[in-house]
Amino acid sequence: MVLLRLFSFLLGHVSLVVRGEFLEKFVNMAASRGIYLWDITRLSNDRVRVRVRISDVRPLRHIARATKSCFKIVERRGMPFMINRMKKRKLLAIGGVFFLVTLYFLSSFVWFINVTGNDKLSDAEIKKIAAEAGLRPGVAKWDLDAKQVERNLREKIPSVAWAGVYVKGTRVTIEIAERKLMQEDPHKGEAAHIVAGKAGLIKEVLVLNGQAMVKEGDTVLPGSILISGEIKEEMIPEETNQPLPRGQEPPEPQTVSRFVQAKGIVRARVWYEGYGECRISETLEKLSGQQKTSVRIKFGTKEIIISGPGESPYRYYEEKQTVKSLPRWRNIVIPVELRTVHYLEKIKERVHYGREGAKRIAEQKAMEEVNAKLPEGAKVIERRLEQVNIGREEELVRMKAFVETVEDIGIMKPFKATEEDND
Amino acid sequence: MSLRDLQKKFKKQFSDFFEIPNDVMLDLPKIVLVGNLQVFIENHRGIVEYTTEKIRVKVGEGEVGITGDRLVLRNIKTDEICVEGQIKSLCFLAPGEVW
After folding, report:
1. In a domain, A243, yes or no
2. What ipTM is given for this predicted complex?
């Protein structure tokens, strides 16, 4: 049925209003002569509307004459009529065809490149490598060899385990699977000291390899050696039975250095300090949640406001704007850009905390500052808060926070072994 | 009993014996009703009367009458009619019977 309708659309069909006395006879005659009629509706006593193909209109004329009825064409539909109408509007037809051709032509280029799956590598880096292999915005799709780009990405960037290039319309998606590079110890096997990363009071020293240079209770400064990678061993001079010649001192005990990579844990007490202050009463700026958006087109230096206010409607406000401009081609810059400006309303509020409230806030700020400094794995032994008095009454509460922790302060520091290795 | 009736009886027995469908042998209409929305009548002999409430279609011998609302002849071919609309009733009329 659908096929039949499509067929009659292609051939073109017309609606006729038939007026006459013996309309049933008219329909019967048409049907018996093999004229296909459809959608026959009675309009009034002596009128019916029928649909019929264009090619059957002429034979219908004879039937109408035979049944003493007449008909009038009221509607024309289908391809032949559309083509006729198009002939009158040639430019429109040409425009339509031109549009389709342009659309087809432009859709055969790559316009957008997406990179997904990259973690450490940047998008720009991957796009640069892809561009070397011939994948850049504006390249024709028939010139693009996805396999070649994939291979290029894999070969040029060693951390890429797998690369996939998918073309979807005018958008190319580069999917990257990065190799998980094992974090290799850069100083593996090299001689190294363990030095203090920060100042502190040594609490315990556990040497796994190397020679301890500090002991419990020592105070160290950043950079001082805690466990040395240089192990000094005393050379035991060969025992000689001969008595030493007179006047000759016994030889100095010779030492031989052995260089190792020092290993060990040095825990020390470290102090941290943080500071926070808060006014007893202050003026806060807060976003009210109200906002107005205005859209403008900037053409050269002129700006045309399309919608929204030109100026901020609020007394206190924050302005945010996004600019969309056309992509530049070669060195032609199209001086048209779309600017969207958001005005966010702000409310100024005067808040009175009171001395206690201000103190609490200052404490909180000080603690936050300290906590930000604490490294992971540090064990906090003591926390202390102290109010800072500067001698005179003021509208400000200042607080200091002290935190004492015990933590491993050792940092590996390789050094060049100057003397020959003995092993 | 006329010759015509004899002929008809013979045809019926013949088609029953050879299992030939009755509508082919006896020149009967084949009517398909789709709910109360559509009627297909195959093997018709033309329309006798058509208004939006009432349609009469000539078949073999006699007529098929359809009543309903907003009846439309969806399509009409030499041996097939499709009627659409709100169908209320469908009845068989003897030739010459006034409905």
Report:
1. no
2. 0.79
Q: For residue B65, what are the domain limits?
A: 27-93
**Which amino acid makes up residue A398?**
R
Binary contact (B75, A36; C-beta < 8 A): yes
In chain A the first and final C-alpha atoms are separated, in Å, by: 96
Size of interface A-B (CB pairs under 8 A): 48
Determine the Cα–Cα distance for residues B16 and B27; give it in Å rounded to an integer: 14
How high is the pLDDT of residue A183? Answer: 64
- Mean pLDDT for A134-152 is 86
Beta-carbon contacts of residue A117 (< 8 Å; ≥ 6 apart): A175, A176, A177, A178
Residue A240: pLDDT band (50, 70, 90) is low
Q: Kindly report the nearest CA distance between residue A327 and chain B, in angstroms.
A: 57
pLDDT score of A417 more than 70: no
List the CATH number of the domain containing A43: 3.30.70.260
| Rounded-to-integer distance, Cα B19 and Cα B44, Å | 23
Kindly list the residues from chain B whose CB atom is less than 8 angstroms away from the CB atom of residue A34. 78
**Does the residue B38 lie in any domain?**
yes
